[in-house]
Amino acid sequence: MKLTLSLGLVALLVAACTAGQYGNRWQQQDQRSSRFQRGQQSDQSWHGAFYAPSSQRGYQSKQYQNYQNQYQSYVAGQQGQQYQDQQYPGQQGQQYPGQQGQQYPGQQGQQYPGQQYQQYSSQQGQQGQQYPGQQYQQYSSQQGQPGQQYPGQQNGQPRVADKDFLIRQKAVLQLLVHITQPNLYPELAEVGRKFDVYNSAGYFKNVQAYQNFLAVYKQGVLPQGEIFNLYNDDYLNQAIALFDLFYFAKDFDSFISVAAWARDNYNEGQFAYAFYVAVIHRDDTYGIVLPPLYEIYPYFYFYGNDLQQFSQAKQQGKNAYSVYTNFSGYNYGSYYGNYYGNQEQLLSYFTEDIGLNAYNAYSHLYNPFWLSAEKYGYNFQARGEYFYYYYQQILNFYNLNRIANYLPELEYFDWDKPIPNGYYPNIQYHTGKPFPPRPDNYPLQSIRSYTIQDIQYIEYRIQEAIDSGYVYSKEGSRIPIVNYIKGINLLGNIVEANGDSVNSRYYGSYQSMLRSLFALIVDPGYNHGVVPGVLANYETALRDPAFYYFYKYINRFFRQYAYNQPSYKFEELAFSGVSVKNIEVEKLYTYFDYFNVDVSNAFYVNNAEEAKSLNYVARSLRLNHEPFNYKLYVNSDKNVSALVRVFFGPSYDAYYSSLYGFYAGGNEGYYQGYPQQQNVRDAFQYVNFDKLKEYFVEWDRFPVNLVPGENVINRSSKQFTSTVGDYPSFDQIYQQVEAALQGQGSFYINDNDQQCGFPDRLVLPMGSKEGTPFAIYAVVSPYTQQNQQPSQQYQQNQQYSCSGVFNYNDNRPLGFPFDREIVDFNQFYTPNMYFKDVFIYQKSFQQVNEPNNTA
To answer: Domains in the chain, start-ordered, CATH in brackets?
Structure first.
């Protein structure tokens, strides 16, 4: 029941190293000159000439240049005005939560009234919030997914955990309590003390993995109390060696024995990381619920100055305390540089969202880049394609929020220019060492392990593969990548440099190297002992505007590869005898609401009883939306199985008004949106839809059985296959387990293993009081037995993808039909497709949090 693991990679997991520990060890990326084959003169002289997106796609058109000044003037006039109709806690002009020393509603330090979970009772609109004893209630009203088994159901019936499972679940939870100090539970600590790491070969089904671990351990590993980082090769190899012990333990008892030993003898960050990945991937821990990582390691998710207030409360002997924190998007000017008048701060409600950053980290836990199919025996066939699609979707959600805030298109990264947007994270490690800030317009520099030119050599080789239509294997043979399904996967494995890359020696570790270059930008030579920036950690990377800047750059490889493929023909897109006649959508509202997180694990305790007594609650505002329903009206001339895909993206009015500083629909000759379906073709005579489609995100994908005549398909936003709701807290999970062990309730196992996905709250970009135009697009395609994935492949995809889009896979590319170039919209637009204009409205703070206020 990997039911709702808290998305977010063991927050301990990634991190920079302290000055004494880093030294020359940071990013020892194996400076194998042979990997880059620098002897080729053409490689040495090449510098970024392989791709010219600005000229191809008109990003730097004269029209765009003309409106840049207009836009900057607009931003200057709009700063701070976006929320002028929304009075947040206190009077207008009040300093909002997030500023030190400020007292907020309810007063800091006040204990929430009532029971521990009463804090959730007043939170309106937290879709998918699971309360104690109600793990699966959110699924009870979901209909319309043929054959779908929801969490807690086996053949349509709930599967109740037995005593053995409950004991396992409890042990896993206890090992994660106050992870930065020794084990608080005597029984588990004793199990760890009895484990003799040097004489335990009988505990493992892969003795070679055990021997390899001993070799690593005897050489010396990262001490406890030091900062673990995935992008340091030494630290990562040590964590993988520990994971191998966990993964290859012969049974659950052996696994827990090894874990209990490692809990008190291995670096806490490496332990937590390896432990999380092992619980996700071991067969005998399938269904175990892991707690939210923003509770296990709050440091990566909450401002350091706010956590300091809890520390002061503990020093004063207070066991219960609350702080209003992370009020991103309201505290203008505090955490960003001055580029374009602090425009990036407008998006901090999205980039610093706790659930979003946890999702990014958890996606890595499901599919670590170092995991090898050959070594661990899994077969995630779409691994490389999923890497590409995952980051494309994240980037598109970010871009939709840029459009919603009337921000210009994200620039393309240029090696010859500094990084435009600065960022001040205001978060720190458990050691107290802060993440370094990055000023505006800061230049990239080579680091100790490799140079900028090294990365450009790799770029050239990847580009060469795209242009030539083949890649080189380790043996030097050519592997064709002309076939899209196979080719996009091979290309994705190469760019990610994961364990299935066909030739990591030749194509290098491109993504890791580029990411490390950004993460070390402040102190590339490690001359001042500065730890790497937020981009070095999956839990924190999405906070930095530079993340989207360089992932747009990485994404260009896949776009160009797709554009080398032939455009879809009409017959490849059409569905004979099937047409979509209409989409009806309920009115869409977004708003900000409160969210409470227990951050007690961030503070030292003497024993388990003291840990139990702490109730430190961080309360933050976050973007949410009201649940909504939509209807598809589909006509069919026969009984037929179909697969529905639903996308969401910009109306071209909103897109062009954001990019160019004017309302495109207000110009004579421009058609405003898609209210009359027969005019869609006319509308796109004035718009580059091929460019517009790059901003669409996939909301939903599900099978239907069509009957002759009109079919009305009802769907709820709660049913989206790509999203998940909020996750149960540690205390919620633990209390349910305890109650079940005492015979006072049932604990249900999630057979569907769908615990990870994009936060449901963020599927809509922030609206406006007047309504911001966007568009919904639906396409209905054939879904026959021949193009459905085998059940075994479905299980593999579920285990490694961290995305519900793999629930229903018809062997078409991810992103279909937007995955190819659209040269002629008339050729693309078929009767089984439909566009619908929608508007997103933003409710004021008072309307949501003060029910009697209708402002």
So the answer is: 159-288 (1.20.1370.10), 322-564 (1.10.1280.10)
